[in-house]
Amino acid sequence: MAATATVSIRASTTVGSPDARISLGPMSLPVPIGVSVWPRPDAANDVDEVLRLATAAQHTGVRSVWFGQKFDLDALTLAAVVGLAVPEIGVGTSVVPINPRHPLVVASQAQTAQAASGGRFRLGIGLGAPPLESAAFGIREDKPVRRLREYLIALRQAIEDGTVDVQGERVYARPPIPTTVHGGGDIPLLVAAMGPLALRATGEAGDGVLPFLAGPRTLESHIVPTLQRVRPANPVRPLQVVAGVVAVVTDRADEVRETAAQALGFYEQFDSYRAVLDREGVAHAVDVALIGDEEYVARGLRAYVDAGATELLIHQTDLAGEDDQLRTWKLLAELTA
């Protein structure tokens, strides 16, 4: 259980509200908190920049750093490099799209990252964005949930059994030699699942979820109960619900909110994100972002924990610049100190 940090919370739920503060007493968040890390656009060397940011996060007291997969830096390689170079901090991917990558390749990379980090790695995968994958790779998966289920089975066998025998409809994996990496086992398998079918596959074959832009209402009424209904009687690991939240501690809430609205509007074109925003009862992705002072952000994060999150992953803390990013990280560290 985390130690207690005293936080005074605003009574209003409106970002930047001038309403008087009320004291809700001592407050801490009894769950780990990590941050997503990505190099700044003006970095001379992207890997050096990621190492600098990860080191700063570790010195601040942040528990883990996570890396997304785009079309440039390789997230699994970053996890291995940071896990080896930066002591103690956890590393993870959030997330690696599965369609362009065979599970045997991902299992090999994941085990390498686990060995490099000394057991501090978690693998986050996702179904990806069909329009982007179609444009980039010329592929489109017409049975994504079936592929996800078979993919998770292949990953678990490769990592935990050292051999794989999956002859599925969407995934074929039968390596003729062992898949074991010594020091690379015991990897939690997390999925960026939010729809009912993907959640069911994840609950049955994975260890947890990495939902993004799914607010507390959606977490409590949809994601957590769906997973709990389908979990096996004796799961390999306890359920992990790593809630992805956009949060920035800043005194320029209105300005940063405008920047966030532009950055997050990208996600509104995708059905999976539109569905969770509708469940939450909000019109835009920025409406679930936590942008304001320490008290406002702390209260918003508490709502996710109360809704069932076992961990928090804070995204886009750099929206207001490096000073406010550090201020945000310091709050996160204090809440879990």
UniProtKB/TrEMBL annotation:
It comes from the Bacteria. Signal peptide: none annotated. InterPro entries: F420-G6PD/mer, Lucif-like_OxRdtase_MSMEG_4879, Luciferase-like_dom, Luciferase-like_sf. Residues 38-310 form the Luciferase-like domain. Its EC number is 1.-.-.-. The keyword Oxidoreductase applies. Gene3D superfamilies: Luciferase-like domain (3.20.20.30). Pfam families: Bac_luciferase. PANTHER family: 5,10-METHYLENETETRAHYDROMETHANOPTERIN REDUCTASE, PTHR43244. This is Putative coenzyme F420-dependent oxidoreductase. It comes from Nocardia cerradoensis. The lineage of its organism: Bacteria, Bacillati, Actinomycetota, Actinomycetes, Mycobacteriales.
